[in-house]
Hints:
Layout: H1 10-27, H2 32-38, E1 44-45, H3 46-53, H4 58-70, E2 74-79, E3 85-90, H5 98-129
Antiparallel strand pairs: 1-3, 2-3
Amino acid sequence: MGPRKEHRNLETCTASLNAVKDALYVLNGKWKLPLIISLQEGPLRFNEIQKSLGEITPKILSKELKDLELNEFVVRRVFSTTPVTVTYELTPYSESLERVIDELRDWGLKHRERLVKNRRSESVEAAMATPI
């Protein structure tokens, strides 16, 4: 990665820091981005979202959905059926995270590959160092 070539002063560093802090504040936690990814196929009901995410509790899912709704990434739709049907779907604004999600996915794949490769080479080195 290395340092950027452009000159950075205190003002631009502070602006960058604040922008990253704002982004992390909105997307904090382990569930927001996976929740957004799960809704990329289309609207889902609460239980469908919970099943797609696996280990999330209803209380946490409810909180995360409210946070995403407040930040305009998700819209909650209520249909007057019997019983009432509630679905959650992504807003057009959520598409602004597409590059972020793609970059995180790519980095995560490379990181996992690196760790697996390093563990294999450490295991081989340990096995070679052990006398028979």
